[in-house]
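Lecture 7 notes: from sequence to structure.

We start with a single chain of 246 residues. Read the sequence below before looking at the structure.
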Amino acid sequence: MSRAIDLAAADGTIDAHVFTPANAEGPLPAVVLLTDIGGLRPCYHEKAQRIADAGYAVLMPNVYYRDAAGEIVPAGKSFRDPDVRPTLVEYAGHLTPEAQFRDFAAWLEGIDAAPDFAGGKVAVVGYCMTGAFALRMAAEHPQRVAAAAGFHSAHLAKADDENAPINVVGNIAGRVYFAHADQDELLPPEQIARMDEALAKAGVHFTTELYRGAAHGFTAKDAPSYNDEANELHYKRLLMLLEEAL
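Now the structure, written as tokens:
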């Protein structure tokens, strides 16, 4: 059960989707689901609906609304195709931390205005590049974000990156869950260790888990790195987090 929704934002109008369980009655706890670099597409609609079916209202915004509406990857193509990926990288480059902060506010305002969502605490989950977004949103809105999760997240704790989300974890009040692939070149062991240390020093309630035998993008059904066992574990862990936090 999904419907399209437009959200007013400082940088334009965000096209988004709201997912709820079939025969849902009354407002439900809010979950913001952020796509990986490939943007809106069928496998993420499936993700959002599966989470919603567990008893949540899920907001899935188009993170690339500044550049294009709807699905970015053409039908029949892959987000990893060499003639598609440069466009995605270009669009992703526009999502600076400052742009993300403006979008966080718009997502929360949209949640507060829509009847599908219960008021109060929310959760946010990101994949690949948006694992960092989820962490920043938790830090930027500590009184609203009860839980933030990241799966096969990328570049969370690069030592030479002043914009890396590791630098804002001290502001987080909610719970954090990270699932890392043990074969992920975009988040090597030294970055995982650096992030764990920062979260621990900040006193954040967090869990880090290493999925053995998984590669970057293990939850994306349209990627060659998709891993069914790891994907099912990701749902199990995420739904447990949402139940406990929301």
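The mean pLDDT is 95. Keep this in mind for problem set 3.
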